[in-house]
Amino acid sequence: MDNAYTPTRRNLLVAATAAAGASSAAIAAVPAKAGSKASVLATGGGQALFNPADCVLLLLDHQTGLFQTVKDIAIDDLRRNTAMLAKMATLLKIPVITTASEPNGPNGPLMPEIHEFAPHAVYVPRKGEVNAWDNGDFVRTVRATGRKTLIMAGVWTSVCVMFPALDAQEAGFNVYAVMDASGDPSEMASRTTLARLVQGDVIPTTANAVLCEMHRTWARPEAAELAKLYILAAPNYGAVFESYQKAQEAARSK
Hints:
By secondary structure, the protein is of the alpha/beta class. Helix content is 43%, strand content 11%. The protein has a domain of 169 residues: Rossmann fold (3-Layer(aba) Sandwich).
C-alpha cells in the first residue's frame, strides 16, 4: 500500500487545498497566483486543507431500504451526520448533488432530510447504474459546478461511495469520503473499503472534520449557526454550550 505521505499524495493535497477560499475576513488570503483560488494564510495555515470555495457535496444513495442493511454504524448516527452535512452546505452555500440508482425498488427513496435541509440540492436520477460515475448526466452535473474537490458520502460505502470516488480521483478530481455519513453491511466491508480508498488516493474523513475544515474560524458571521451544527456532529458537545450558557447567566446575575 502506498504511504499516505508520499510526494505524489502530498502534492495532490497541496494542489487541492492551495486553491482555498474562506468566507471570513479573518481568513484573509495571501495574494493568489493568476487563475488560482488560494486562501492559504501567510502562516501556511490551510495548505493541507480543502478549499471550501472549490467543494461540492455528493450524497449518494442514502436510501431508506439500504439503511436496513447497514451494520458498521448506528443508523441514527448515519442519518444525523448526513443531515448535518446538508445543513452545513446550505449555510455555507456549498453545491449539493444527490442521486439514487433505483428509488422505486427495494432500496427505497432517499432520506427526506437531505432535500429538506438542502433545498438547493440537485437530484440526478440514474438509469439503474450501480456506480454513479457510469451515469453521464451525473458526471456532467458534477463537472458543471466548475469545482474540483468532491466530498462524497453514501450507502453502501464499499460500492456507492467507493466506485465513483475512485473513478473521480482518476478523472482528476480531489475526493474526500465521509466515512461516518456512509454505511456498509459489515465492519469487514468498511475496513476493506477504507484500505482501497487510501490506496486510490481518496482522502477518508468524518462529518465533524468536514465541518471544521469548512469552518476554519469563529470570527465569521455564521459562527452562531455553525455552533448548532457541532451539536449534530458531536451530540455531547451540546453539554459544552449548556454549561457555558449557565455560567454566563450566573455571571450576569451577580
